[in-house]
Amino acid sequence: MTQKDINPYPYSDSHKRYQTYEYWLRKTFGGKCAKIPLDGGFTCPNADGTCGVGGCIYCSERGSGDFASSPRLPLKQQYAEQRTKLAKKWPTDRCIAYFQARTNTYAPVTVLRQKFDEALGFEGVVGLNIATRADCLPAETVAYLAELSRRTTLTVELGLQTVHDTTASLINRGHSFETFLDGYRRLTAASSGIHTCIHLILGLPGEDLSMMLESVKAVADLRPTMVKLHLLHVLRGTVLGELYEQGKYIPMTREDYVQAVVSSLELLPPETVIARLTGDGDRRSLLAPLWSVPKMAVINEIDKRMYRENTYQGKLYDK
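RE: above sequence
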């Protein structure tokens, strides 16, 4: 008997005891898709002074767009470059245009329409992922996103990071949990065709495991389509990087992170897609934790612990 044969988790066709993004892609599109990172040239309200300056304390200058092409390039050229670059990793004709850098609804609808509609016309594009913030979803933007969801497979990714307002203030997030809930509810009410993906960061300053799991439980109650769990990376040139170098922030150990992820998965609904379990820090600027660099080794440790403890996603989920 293999681990696959004895896997008690229903939304899996492998040994994985959680619903992987790859599994969801196969069920949705019939096979693997390549996510093509694009930089639409957007900024962020807590970077330009609208609700703060400097951005979140962990954000690099590219605002999560470190792996995209230069925003100075036309979107079509960015798409072509990234598709060629990722062809060996994801050999497929199906692609998802991923607007990842900064806040991708922080502009007038006329600008959003021009950029997103253009990306939908690129060769091979079968879906659109838009990363943004819940406080950047005015009514006209939500209406446009609802329209997009009727034309393509749309996933709107919302950075929450934590439900604790004290932590949100500490990391310079620029909005409260109540503000997030308002945007999230208006978005999901606008169209049942909008897939939602909520981001959480494990290891934020001042948070212990119980606080992290409170955030997970709150997100579980919202029943998003997907969840991304991120390890907090410390990057050179950020406020967090300065705190780390001054000895004022201590990153999670690998053992603690693996346990936090497993405990989080147990609390999430079994139907929720786990779009990420850790994350990628730009190796050129990563200060810590260096154990995160071999990402597959971390994921393998999570898999092994779940098998060893005979647990799985949703085992402790309370409806």
